[in-house]
């Protein structure tokens, strides 16, 4: 696969060096934006998948890690500032992307900190290529998308996905589900626990992210479960059982019940370190300093 890493002069985002990685998928070139801050051992920080997914959600955590690590945070293809073409977004895209990106950007096993739905992709690569990662931290890990979690069948989820992908009806449906009032409701429901942090300016920034051209395609894939890299809990737990690198899991004490059940099953496995901290599914953005405090012993005690 032909890939290039091109440095840009921009210093936007959270104050790091912003770069673009030109990645080819099925003869189509995608521009993937990532940002690097700090010096030291390499650390890859992966944001969660969501309608508002962007590397900026891990920006404060990056700043806290940067004094001790060279931190790379990436906008997944289809999200953030990366290209958002109307692809059929599915696990194979992100499995291949993560494998290629890690190979292109890092020349040594790297520590990875992954939020939410990024968990399955990290675990799959870690099992496939044991030298890819030196240690893994999963923040509020999930493996099943919102609609399947609510009980929707694959058929219903597929119909919704195709509706949202359609030109006129899809744009209207997407706009209804990304209004600022709806985003605020979702954050209050299961993303943040401190309502005071869900300010109008905060929601405005999230809304702007959802309004980028082509934003609905990858978002619809995530919401309807088409980015679920595994389909069963047993498959997710099986990945963890096959790991050969140290794993730590951070759980938000206010996580939604179904998600919390899945996380509890994960941390019950032998050898998995875990900690429960304040927060819910967005704990990495809401409580970055608490996250750092929870994981720093794990990161440093295992330094190579």
Topology:
Layout: E1 4-7, E2 17-25, E3 28-37, E4 41-46, H1 59-65, E5 69-74, H2 91-105, E6 110-115, H3 118-128, E7 133-139, H4 146-149, H5 154-165, H6 168-176, H7 180-191, H8 200-210, H9 215-223, H10 233-241, E8 247-252, H11 257-267, E9 273-277, H12 283-286, H13 288-301
Parallel strand pairs: 4-5, 4-6, 6-7, 7-8, 8-9
Antiparallel strand pairs: 1-2, 2-3, 3-5
Description:
The structure is a single chain. The chain is an alpha/beta fold. It is built from 13 helices and nine strands. It has helices at residues 59-65, 91-105, 118-128, 146-149, 154-165, 168-176, 180-191, 200-210, 215-223, 233-241, 257-267, 283-286, 288-301, and strands at 4-7, 17-25, 28-37, 41-46, 69-74, 110-115, 133-139, 247-252, 273-277. The protein has a nine-stranded mixed beta sheet with strand order 1-2-3-5-4-6-7-8-9, sandwiched between helices. Strand 2 (17-25) and strand 3 form a beta hairpin. Helix 5 runs antiparallel to helix 9. The chain is globular and about 55 Å long. Mean pLDDT is 90; it is low at 6-11.
Quick description:
This protein is an alpha/beta fold and 304 residues long.
Percent in helix: 40-55%
Using only C-alpha atoms, the radius of gyration works out to 18 Å
SS elements, strand count = 9
Q: What is the molecular shape? A: globular
Structural class by secondary-structure content: alpha/beta
Order of helices and strands: EEEEHEHEHEHHHHHHHEHEHH
Query: What's the helix count?
Result: 13
Going across the major beta sheet, what is the strand order?
A: 1-2-3-5-4-6-7-8-9
The averaged pLDDT comes out at 90
The fraction of residues assigned to DSSP E strands is 15-25%
Major sheet summary line? 9 strands, mixed
The low-confidence parts are 6-11
Q: What is the terminal-to-terminal distance?
A: 31 Å
